[in-house]
UniProtKB/TrEMBL annotation:
InterPro entries: ABC1_TM_dom (IPR011527), ABC1_TM_sf (IPR036640). GO terms for cellular component: plasma membrane. It is found in: Cell membrane. Residues 13-239 form the ABC transmembrane type-1 domain. It comes from Lactococcus lactis subsp. lactis (Streptococcus lactis). GO terms for molecular function: ABC-type transporter activity; ATP binding. The lineage of its organism: Bacteria, Bacillati, Bacillota, Bacilli, Lactobacillales. This is Multidrug resistance ABC transporter ATP-binding and permease protein. It holds the Pfam family ABC_membrane.
Amino acid sequence: MVKYLKEFKFENFMVFLLITIDIALAVLSSVFLANVLNSLIAKEMNQFFLWLAIDIILWMVDSFVQGARDVWKEIAIQKQLNAVRRDIIEPLTEISYSDFEKNSKEDYNSWLNNDTKLLYDNGFHQIYFVYTGIVAMLFSGIAIIFFHWVLLLTTLLVGALLFYFPKMFKQSVERDTEQVSELANDALATSTDYLRGYEVLYHNKQLGLMQERTMGKFNQLATANVKLIFFVLGCSILY
């Protein structure tokens, strides 16, 4: 995926920049909120309304930044997914027919659709999510140091644990992602084969077999997807 991140440098730069600005504004807003509470406790109403107004303005600006971030993120991801599809299709224009026949048309179709969906859900989004977590931890640490150094030390220790602990799931996520891809290909091929043979099954009164075999494949795919999401969510929660 690094190849595609580099290919669309500007789009990814905008995503990372907007993520950074969003986190900075969110942390700054939290710091100002502490000033709001301190002013309220001290009954300094002028300071209270001043900090409250600043905090509201920051929140409004951050809302626009978040919207821009999401738009640029989708632009970057879609361009990168199309680049992946391009790299799948382009070699097909240069190989011989015998080489093309080494894989079924369903395989190619699955690579263009199912695999890119996996990249969308568990690839590019996760890269941006991890970057968000790192930036949030960094900015939060900078903000916390102004309150007490012990809080910063605690944040660093927790951050280190959160950084290394999810690596325990890395192999499981990679294995399950590959399994989902294979099962998606298999399910697509099975459903295509049975739909193509619908007339034969109909005349032989074997339509129940189509439902049994096809749904069996899709049930396996559903189970694998749930398992994959379990690991991905586990890593996301830890981050």
